[in-house]
Design brief:
Elements (H helix, E strand, L loop, with lengths): L7 E9 L9 E9 L5 H11 L19 E4 L2 E4 L12 E5 L6 E3 L2 E2 L2 H9 L9 H5 L9 H5 L12 H5 L1 H5 L6 H11 L7 H8 L13 H5 L6 H18 L31
Parallel strand pairs: 1-5
Antiparallel strand pairs: 1-2, 3-4, 3-5, 6-7
Bound molecules: iron/sulfur cluster (SF4) (2 copies) and FE2/S2 (inorganic) cluster (FES).
Length: about 280
């Protein structure tokens, strides 16, 4: 491994795409100084300031909180601000936009489909006691055990890394994806919530958890330690129990039909070559 106590150099191989001038995305290399402790996001800022002012990406907080800097870095979805160049153990860093999303420009994915699916699942606490909600007379008490049922899922920062790693998202445009489903389960498993019946309209439909193959890639790449694959399997169990309670005979998974003409989504560039 390189000695990172001294400044050396690193090459960023970046997927560039300007929809106003380029027919297809292409790769460009940039050589930048590599001071100890440099993150991938800091490398991108160096490139923008001194080599290519048109380079585009999203970032804000620089501390793994806002979820805006998800990128495909050395063959894996990661947060650029939370990834040290040294941890990649290579002097060649490939940076591409998150797979499984259409590309707006350079490293900027179009996250609207993900947030649309998120919105459809009503990701907020729904209660029957609307008067109490408007004019609360006390706290909504919750035990430590009840908190544990949803706490880890609430750490999600909506970065989309799980969606980019999910093999079902890569091939099945109907599937809502791990982030929206895990967040639906976050609220379904909150003892203060009574919205399962409302969310069930979407969750038991075509876009719901029955399309998940439980490959677990979503949980492997999550930078916040959330386990969306677990949330989705728990959601399946909740839906099955609900079906049994209602006396339905048909397996709820039977609604997940193979969509017509299923193939890799169009307009999504091939993944870059692995460098590690
Ligand atoms: S579950 Fe993890 S990877 Fe997926 S959007 Fe949330 S924080 Fe990002
Ligand atoms: S467990 Fe489900 S949601 Fe997660 S990567 Fe696999 S198919 Fe996608
Ligand atoms: S800039 Fe906010 S998570 Fe990376």
């Amino acid at each position: 491994m390189a000695d990172h106590t001294v400044t050396s150099e690193v090459v960023f191989r970046i997927r560039r795409f300007d929809p106003t001038t380029d027919a297809d995305p292409h790769w460009e290399d940039y050589r930048v100084p590599w001071p100890p402790g440099m993150t991938v996001l800091e490398g991108l800022k160096q490139i923008k300031e001194s080599l290519s002012p048109t380079l585009a990406w999203r970032s804000s907080c620089r501390m793994g909180v806002c979820g805006s800097c998800g990128m495909f870095i050395n063959g894996r979805p990661r947060l650029a601000c939370n990834t040290q160049v040294s941890e990649l153990e290579s002097s060649l860093i490939t940076v591409a936009p998150l797979p499984n999303f259409n590309i707006i420009r350079d490293l900027v994915p179009d996250l609207i489909p993900m947030f649309k699916a998120h919105t459809e699942t009503q990701p907020y606490i729904i209660r029957d006691d609307t008067n109490e909600q408007r004019q609360p007379t006390g706290e909504y008490w919750q035990s430590a055990h009840q908190l544990e049922q949803y706490l880890q899922f609430s750490y999600c920062i909506k970065c989309g890394c799980c969606m980019a790693a999910c093999p079902t998202c890569a091939t099945d445009p109907v599937y809502a994806g791990p982030m929206p489903l895990a967040q639906a389960h976050r609220y379904n498993s909150d003892s203060r919530d009574g919205g399962f019946a409302a969310r069930k309209q979407v969750l038991s439909g075509e876009r719901g958890p029955w399309r998940c193959h439980f490959a677990g890639e979503c949980s492997r790449v999550c930078p916040k330690g959330v386990d969306p694959a677990r949330a989705i399997q728990l959601m399946k169990r909740q839906l099955v129990f609900d079906y049994l309670k209602l006396g339905k005979q048909k397996c709820p998974a039977s609604i997940a039909k193979v969509p017509d003409g299923m193939k890799r989504r169009e307009g999504i560039p091939e993944a870059p070559p692995r460098t590690i």
